[in-house]
Amino acid sequence: LLANQTTCDSVDSGGPQLTTRTLISLAAMNGCFTGGLAAQNTICGPPPVQGQLCASPSDFMPNAPTFAGSATCRDIQESFTLHNIFGNESKCRDPFPGGQNFTIGAAFGTLGAQCCQGARMAGNCSAERVLPCSNPADFNVSANLTFSPDDAGMSCAFAPLTLSGANASNCDQQISSGGTTYGHFLRIAGQHCCNGGPQVSICTAAPTPPPSPPPPRVGPTFACGGVA
């Protein structure tokens, strides 16, 4: 296979259903080649960019759980590397793998908070991701976001995913899954998810009427508990 460039995008029917190109990169990432990704076989093109979820590798928590089912932070970072997502701004608005209703850029906001100490996330897709807090270090993914006293609520970890597509021009727009506007959701998320710190200001001037019907429970679903 490695001697034939035409097989790079062929799927290995007897193995894990990955292309030859991906298998080569996966082998390099797992230490099969001396020198790592940079030393991998180049018949199938240059190696993928070895990106980072965190601003500093020392902040990375590889075994921390993520919103993506059973996938750990290491699993996500390796998957993003294999899919050439790091350093590729053209993919920021693509749907997150697995047919989700939020973008890769939005997912970076949640992953940065879940996988990086102090939420010191790298600048991946910074124009696409929306956090409810002005200071990312205030974002508490373990807190619960509720809209009323009898509301069961949702994890703050899902807030950036729910805010996928939010910007200053659509604060009054209903979130696609219904129930509330971007502006109202941002205000409530800022109150519950920022450890008392200031909330992001993109929708501060927007009317925020109580949602009716109750806001949606937005969260990803994964058939196999991981990233495609």
Give a description of the structure.
This protein is 21% helix and 2% strand. It has helices spanning 20-29, 73-82, 104-115, 159-162, 182-193, and strands at residues 144-145, 154-155. A two-stranded antiparallel sheet has the order 1-2. The longest helix is centred in the middle third of the chain and has 12 residues, at 104-115.
Stretches where pLDDT is under 50 for at least 5 consecutive residues are 206-213, 221-226
Let me know the number of strands.
2
Assign a percent range to the helix content.
Answer: 10-25%
Provide the spatial order of strands within the biggest beta sheet: 1-2
Shape: elongated
Radius of gyration: 19 Å
- Helices and strands, in order, run as HHHEEHH
From the helix content, strand content and strand pairing, which structural class follows? Answer: mainly alpha
Task: Please report which band the strand proportion falls in: under 5%, 5-15%, 15-25%, 25-35%, 35-45% or over 45%.
Answer: under 5%
Largest sheet: 2 strands, antiparallel
Number of helices: 5
Ends distance = 24 Å
> What is the mean predicted local confidence, pLDDT?
77
